[in-house]
Model the fold of this input.
Amino acid sequence: MALRSVSIALAGSGGAGVVTAGAALQEAAARAGWHALMSRSAGPQIRGGEAAALPGLGGTLVQAEDELASINQIIGASWGGVPALTATSGPGLSLMTESIGLAVAAEVPVVIVDVMRGGPSTGIPTKSEQSDLDIAIHGLHGDAPHLVVAPVSIGDCLFATQWAVALAEALQAPAIVLGDQRLGQARAVIERPGDFVFAARRMVYEGGAEAAAYRRYAITASGVSPMARPGGAGGQYTADGLEHDEAGVPSSRAADHAAQLDKRARKLECHDYGEHWAVIEGEGELALLAWGSSVPPCREALERLREAGKPARLVAMRLLSPAQPEKLARALAGVTRVLVVEQSHSGQFHRYLRGSFDLPGEVRSLHRPGPLPIRPAEVCDAVRGWAMP
Done:
């Protein structure tokens, strides 16, 4: 058994440049050692010009005929030892959900980038909305724990995507990266980030004296078990969507089912996500809670409130699933008012927070659908009705 490590680093800090989120996502994945992109154009996601640049980053682009092909291609590639990702939008994610469940059951690391748009159905194919949160977190069949990560800015696409890749590899689980049209097709001038390194380690079974006793889905304290490369001596096992025992043999026994459910949940629940789960700025008894493309207007509103003598803090959540209730409780310590900001007609983020976290004090929701972006003035107006210290 060995750990295959992939170092992820951005070249030296300093110097500004123009970047799109789509290009940043690709570069992040390539720097992470994920060199295959299987994609079908389901706008607004990675543009053709950006995709054409992938070979220059050491990657390979496969233009799939549809979403079913692309998701199953990346599962097969990753299972075969070539980590890969795909990109889609809106209803494309709906088509992929069964196969994402397969990746959960077979414990195959993959990354799916969903550049959200207005829905349902074909909806507004080229306009922005944050309305895929429900399906990204809760849309899989059965109890299927997986990762959901969202960049908090265009520049953060580099960091958040690299982190999602590292998590998927380390935890042998699918990761969904949520962006939207406002991030995916926007350009920004950013300072090149300083060096940061993750170790995207996939626990790999190398065979050896104990080969005859290899158990692909062995119950471990961390929930992660070594993954054999196809064709390796002694590493044969069944990898499919059927429930199984520790050796990978299909099983419908209640004990095996419960043990594997616990294993798949434990590896995500027990992992240390550090401080990367959110970006926290400012201080005050009022907190703005946002994610994705709603973060930049909240950041500007934070400055306006501070200038008006109304200090507040911003909690921009980067890790949306699994939930981190203890970390959020610490981030909101001393808060008496929470304003949840999102671009969703039904308030999906607010509903998710109320179901997964114990939010302090009075909680209000600022939510509306796309395609027009939320403006800083709207956030400030929503705060005005509260008595401030």
User: Anything to note?
Assistant: The chain has twelve helices and 19 strands.
